[in-house]
Design goal:
Low-confidence stretches: 1-19, 26-39, 390-404
Number of helices: 23
Strand content: under 5%
Helix content: over 70%
Distance between the termini: 26 Å
Shape: globular
Largest sheet: none
Order of helices and strands: HHHHHHHHHHHHHHHHHHHHHHH
Length: 404
Amino acid sequence: MGRLVVWFFLATSLAALCGSQEASAQTSDTAKTGSGRGSAQASSNQKELFIAGETALRNGDLDRAEHAFRKIVAIDPQSAGAYANLGVIYMRRKQWDQALHMLRHAERLAPDIAGIRLNIGLAYYRQNDFRSAIAPFESVLHDQPDSAQARYLLGLCYFFDDRWAQAADTLEPLWGQQSFNFSYLYVLDIAAYKAQRKELDERALSRLLEVGGDTPEFHLMMGRTHLNREEDDQAIPELERAAQQNPKLPFLHCYLGLYYLHQHDYEHAVEEFKKDIEIEPDDAYAHDKLGETYALQQQDAEAEKQYRQALRLDPKLTTSYLGLAKIYNRLGRYQEALAAIDAEQKADPEDYSTHLLRSLVLKAMGQREKAKAEFDIYNRMMNAAREKKGDEEIPNPGLTAEPE
């Protein structure tokens, strides 16, 4: 991904700002989301179970809530509301496959309920699978054009997928509600800058400077802005100012680490990434960058340890798979290298760089024909990507800290 700094740390704060809490199916919707069949007594039992399940869900008693809603689907397998709430329960447990299974079932039973599709989008979003979240959010915004939540989340997904013009177009209408919010302004400014929308870029940046004030969060965002624009000399004073004001600010030390990594100052980069991990132990990206720093120093055992930890926290963090593959290839552990490449390609099929790495591994194994075939795929995909995006650098889109 070169020197382009990833933006996905913003997912946490921005999702919270647009109200990304899951929507449960309310009892008032039961008539719309249930089958309506069965005796009056059965309907009464369902209503009581629904109320009990919702109450438990609001109180955070997920086991009791699950028990109630499973009773409902046993009585009435056509109750979309019960399936939708089971999906919410699994989302809160971060059991994403089960959540999506229940939500998709609810969607088939009640395709007109936008809240179900919103939760499907959220389930993908919270796995950092922004591309898959786009279609559900688009459908919600199509049906509910005034939904600020769907618009904000869709704009973020476009942003994280490097679809700058769509991100700017989608987020700009929220200006009236969000122009006081420098997190929103930061994302809008980056999107407008990348989309070459000069007027919107200048307006967002001007407003960002106006509302930011002398706060550590503001200096952090300005530092990130300069890093994203490869203006490292202007980034470091902002990041150091933020550190002076609040040394425990989340992700601050990760960005300082990135600055030192750019400067090839690996000793200070390691120190900063370790500080970030101490503050945010679940920050998969900091573990990934710490692994990269160790790998550059050929401290392979430490690098492997950090990459493995990053993948435990975020199994879709593709750069960690690539980092492992490069280490294994260098050490002659070719089968392990191929396994890591397979995992990366599954997570991001469009990343053509894996074909080059696979070609190198196969060549080292003496499989020259297969190596040439992989190299040809690499060239073909690379040329297609360049034709699509011109000379713009193509970043790897799969890195993020998990949003809450």
